[in-house]
Amino acid sequence: CVTLDVQAACRDTTVTQELLKEGFHRDLLVKVELGEDAGECVVAARVRLPPGIYVDPDELATLQQHNLSKALLVPDIVDVEAPEYLARDLVVLLFLEPDPRCSRCSRAAVPVHARYHRPAQGTATASLVLESPDVLLCCCHSHLAAECWEPAEVDAPCSAENAGPCQWHSTKNRPASKESVLRVPVGLREHSSLVCALTLLTTGLCSGLILAAACKYGHFS
User: Fold this and answer.
1) Which Pfam families match (predicted)?
2) Tens of pLDDT along 26-37?
3) What does pTM read for this prediction?
């Protein structure tokens, strides 16, 4: 009976994430609908990105300067040039803004970029799975139901502006959500010989043209 009462009191939290735009450069949109009104609580989503996807810290800093996005990266130093097989996972703590169309809803977006992958055998795409984000609440002036929320180990401030310590809480029941899949174009291994031959031919031709122009128009003492 106690279990039924707790389930009835803890309404489901719904999380949805969408990958907007096309190609290697996307926007990740996260929307959260809480089971109850969060009041003055700060709502955040902890998003885990696989090695094949990253957030550019410089781009994020520019967006935050213009108040277009609020997020923290862990780690905060990201090698944006590394390919997928040399990169590591990244965690984004995305601070959500209230949705004016829904009293229990919050949303936010952050730009994400796909990394280059190794050539594959027999397939022209690689699938990157984005796990469902964790929903976190920080309530400085109100109390959350203990049967619905529990303290979460998150070393992050309550907001992007406030650097002070904060106690985050996560839902005890798993939020209803679905994984997202990003398909990234990759090269085909069976084309390796052709690509190498064309690259070598193009390099030799361009080098020859540069050398010919230097000999014709160059002034040598």
Assistant:
1) PIG-X
2) 999 999 988 766
3) 0.77
